[in-house]
From TrEMBL:
The keyword Transmembrane helix applies. It holds the Pfam family EamA. One of its GO terms (cellular component) is plasma membrane. Residues 9-138, 157-300 form the EamA domain. This is Permease of the drug/metabolite transporter (DMT) superfamily.
């Protein structure tokens, strides 16, 4: 029991570290979103490069197609994903972005059900309808309070980017899980995590000079510069790399029914932390939309836990594919 409590605490710690990604774009202003993304993942990629250098013997044993695939899903699942999150959070709201991205378990379930049916399609109807109701309500927030305006249109574009982030992350999780199951021999988790990190880091290193060149000059004043560097170090090294390590270690001892809810806390933490960064409180419309989405996730998890028990899945079978099969973090 004590071991389980320690693992749950560790998993919550990892979720909290990952959640800082949502308030970060507002917190680093006037730095650009691109500078935050490229700075964060350049450091994340350097962590991956260090691991690959130490494990070069294992890396040489991997087929080139697997190495390229690892780099590819790292680019899509991390770099492209966080580009969408960052611009969504600043054009709309980090709170709304976190809530929408938090609905990804439903899109993952729908996509995964086509490849490997885990539950009846009828069981997904209620969660999907609740999620869609929540997204509709969140999309109408600024139109309800302000009417058609540039701010409202920016917010709507921010929501579309958040949906893109949700779909991108879902694609990453499903493709990664499918590939791991089809390979006869799984790659070493540390080496695979490092490849994924390099996929995100490689693109970031290429674009970092452009991000610096297009960043507003006031960013390079002492305090804004310190702020963006501190956030990049925290997100890239502490959040992405160490948060992943903490999760992977903890996930090995977490009972199946707890894994989904623990992962869901990441976006809950992110939504809560985004509000102080934006210096506001949520509107009732936002609260209503968030509750619809949380209800949809809860209904889905209830069905998933029931199906897991009926199949007699072993502990850890329902771990997030990028955290059990492959160390990863948002």
């Amino acid at each position: 029991m004590g071991s389980t409590q320690r693992n749950v605490t560790a998993a919550l710690t990892a979720a909290l570290l990952w959640a800082f990604a949502f308030p970060a774009p507002a917190a680093v202003k006037p730095a650009s979103e691109l500078l935050l993304v490229t700075g964060r993942y350049s450091l994340f990629g350097l962590c991956g490069l260090y691991v690959l250098c130490r494990g070069r013997r294992q890396l040489r044993l991997m087929p080139m197609r697997r190495i390229l695939f690892g780099l590819y899903i790292g680019f899509v699942g991390y770099f492209v994903f966080y580009i969408c999150v960052s611009y969504s959070a600043t054009m709309g709201s980090g709170f709304i972005t976190a809530v929408i991205v938090g609905s990804s378990p439903i899109t993952i379930a729908v996509a995964g059900n086509f490849a490997e049916k885990r539950m009846s399609w009828s069981e997904l109807v209620a969660p999907v309808l609740l999620i869609l109701s929540g997204l509709t309500l969140l999309s109408a927030v600024d139109f309800i309070h302000e009417g058609p305006s540039d701010r409202a249109h920016d917010s709507l574009l921010g929501i579309l980017l958040a949906i893109m982030a949700m779909l991108t992350w879902s694609y990453f999780v499903v493709r990664n899980a499918q590939s791991q199951r089809t390979w006869e021999t799984k790659p070493d988790p540390k080496i695979w995590a490092a490849l994924v990190a390099m996929g995100a880091g490689g693109a970031s290193m290429v674009l970092l000079p452009f991000a610096i060149a297009t960043t507003p000059e006031e960013t390079f004043s002492p305090y804004p510069l310190f702020k963006i560097i501190a956030w990049c170090v925290f997100l890239g090294v502490i959040g992405s790399w160490w948060g992943t390590y903490i999760w992977v270690k903890a996930a090995q001892g977490i009972p199946v029914p707890l894994v989904g809810p623990l992962l869901a806390t990441e976006t809950i933490f992110g939504a809560i932390m985004s509000l102080p960064a934006e210096r506001r409180t949520p509107t009732w419309t936002e609260v209503g939309g968030a509750l619809f989405i949380l209800a949809g996730i809860a209904v889905y998890m209830a069905f998933d836990v029931k199906n897991s028990r009926s199949r007699g899945d072993g502990a850890g079978a329902e771990q997030k594919p990028d955290a059990s099969d492959v160390p990863a973090a948002t």
